[in-house]
Fold:
Amino acid sequence: MINLHNKSKIKTNFLVIIFIFLLLEISTISSITAISEKNKIINFQNRLLANDYTLFSPMDSNVTYLIDNNGNIKHSWISEYEPGLSVYMLENGNILRAIHLGDSGGGAVGSGGGIQEMKWDGTIIWDFRYYSSDYIQHHDIEPLPNGNVLLIAKEYKTYSDAIAAGRNPSLLQSDVLSPEYIVEIKPTGPTSGDIVWEWHLWDHLIQDFDASKDNYGVVGIHPELVDINFVTTIQADWIHANSVDYNAKLDQIIISSRNFGEFWIIDHSTTTAEAAGHTGGNIGLGGDILYRWGNPQIYRAGDEEDQKLFGQHDAQWIESGCPGEGNILVFNNGIGRPGLDYSSVEEIIPPIEENGSYYLKLGFAYGPDNSVWVFGINDKFFYSPHISGCQRLINGNTLICSGANGYFFEVTNNKDIVWEYYNYFPNPYENSVFKIRRYKLPFNNPNIPEINGVTSGSSNTSYEYTFTTNDIDGDNIYFYIDWGDGEVEEWIGPVNSGQSISLSHIWKKDDIYTIKVKAKDVFELESDWAYLEVTMPVNKYLYNFVFDLIQKILDIYPRFFPFLRYFNFL
Structure:
């Protein structure tokens, strides 16, 4: 027999458990909401730009976002593909986005396989593929001033290729080895492009393992070459390049190798033939490494204690016009760092000579010994074991993306955090972002429109009005028109800058109406409102005129029209 008292007690306990579970769920949802809503500017005191926006493409999403400093979405672009992995905004407002083609493009983490250029409205104007059974684009791309694009790719070498190059067989996990290379693509059509320059790491190797094989030499006296037998992993992807950057003034390229814990600088002024050799170009070293920093033990100029970078990403020159211009900034992920794993952003001053070469004392490591600016554990603990990025801004602040947890923040030179944003796209659990970039939109707002048409008329009669404005950038225009009677025309267009549109309207009641119109361009930048007052009907003006005339006469001749005064008509 069931004890009714115990049954009631069980029921009560069950309800209590359900209640506690619901509280926990609500708490979790509240926490997620709190994170998703934490997109705030802490203060503006150290900001010089009011109209800048942050561009990012979440790794688990097909959407690219442009947000303002309040975390509001300014614009978004939808693609068929997830990123593969970086995205940049071009000077014309288009975005250049690497795409992840999935299994068809190789399927590996960081792999891409293609690039798309998209206009503001989402139209794809360049859709280029770069993959085959022998190679694939991955991780990063770099738009060049001449309209071409640099991209990182890896090629596949066979087991016999690797052995012939001097690779130690015990360091080969599979039948394939995947060294990195850089190609420059010149767009030639909607889906086509020509390779106009390329550089292959495979042409710049050294080894001291087997004198009977290629690339044999003394590693320690050839810092311009890469030791094929230095490994942190025996996987095929033994280099794992993850970023590329270009310096137009020097005509040089930075490549970041995550697995080596260092970045390299190479000469872009070479021809492709020179890039495959050891002479030629501005510096005279062909495609050999001009400078490397982060882990001197690779070229036998140090040991583990001298390693500076650990799984780093986004090595770049600080852009012209920004404090620290010409220095190198890098996100140091810190994975495998001695002691505690933590991330930092570091700025170094490379030892560059007047001719663009880099000072090195033979037998020593490339300088500097230390970073000139570091934002790390002593300032704020943040840790992203993979992906991530950074950017020096024109106001001297540094924008940081702790990519694994979708956390963006901006710090001053004095290391005060002045802006924070938590990404929650596509959701708070899958919010990783490869890296971000901040842009001041290179566009101007349209001018205030002009309205031409009658200012008085009769109700229930159609009247035509023309609306015109100019856009300084020559962008197409849309018009939003409010007729003042509750009827609106929502974003009519697009029309060319300077081109008029004509619309007719009927006001159904006698009244005074205000036409309001504003314009926006294709980048959704809006003008101020323009106004035009319209009176319906015409005889209302006549009535007001007569009324005012009689009032003036009465003021002069108060005995006129006594009956009007008697009946309080005046």
